[in-house]
Design goal:
The chain is α/β, with parallel strands linked by helices and 200 residues long. The chain is 38% helix and 20% strand. The chain has helices spanning 2-33, 90-105, 123-126, 129-132, 148-153, 183-196, and strands spanning 48-55, 61-62, 68-69, 78-83, 113-119, 139-142, 164-167, 172-177.
Length: 200
């Protein structure tokens, strides 16, 4: 009798532990995969949700020192991506500054988020050398315009220059922020996502 009771207790414990650890993850997935674009989760979201979230496919890219980068470099962290089609001018530079400050403001959650500057060619780096000195945490990703990664981003049907994109730790493109958004609103959305999700 004791064996049966112990077995039932053990089974209940396993189920409870599974529920405790999986609920935050499934909750986060439900909130942004099953919410219509622009529709708030909980109260309000400031960025535009991409519904359904778009799983990015394998791609080839390089970093500033010509080392190979792949889809794996966009997994394991929440990624703030800043695509640059032409010159990183005033708005682009402001996005770099704002996203740096946003990441710092996340405090203990900072390491869960990475910033990626997506370029189309190495020539774009020439005009960024001084600016990049102010952004030690920024990761550079270079992929030609006709390559897979840029083609996948075109699903947004918007000019990518000066947009800020958010990619989840499973490499799903799931939110976009317009150039005119207040950086405090991006921080609010990120804090909310990081609070309800334990992935990344």
């Amino acid at each position: 009798m004791n064996d049966i009771t112990n077995k039932k207790t053990s089974n209940r414990t396993v189920v409870l532990l599974f529920a405790l650890f999986s609920a935050p993850m499934f909750g986060a997935w439900y909130l942004y995969l099953n919410t219509a674009p622009g529709k708030p989760w909980g109260t309000t979201n400031h960025g535009e949700l991409i519904n359904p979230a778009q799983p990015l496919k394998e791609f080839n890219a390089t970093n500033a020192t010509n080392e190979n980068l792949t889809l794996a470099n966009l997994t394991g962290h929440w990624t703030i991506m800043i695509p640059v089609v032409g010159e990183c001018a005033e708005v682009c530079q402001k996005n770099l500054y704002n996203t740096r400050q946003i990441r710092i403001a996340l405090n203990k959650e900072t390491e869960r988020v990475q910033r990626v500057l997506l370029l189309q060619n190495t020539q774009q780096l020439v005009g960024l050398s001084e600016i990049l000195k102010q952004h030690a945490d920024l990761k550079i990703m270079i992929a030609p315009a006709d390559q897979t990664l840029w083609q996948q981003l075109k699903i947004l049907n918007i000019p990518l220059q000066d947009q800020i994109l958010l990619i989840d730790p499973h490499a799903n493109l799931m939110m976009q922020f317009a150039p005119t958004i207040n950086p405090r609103d991006i921080l609010k959305d990120l804090n909310k996502l990081l609070k309800i999700s334990k992935i990344g």
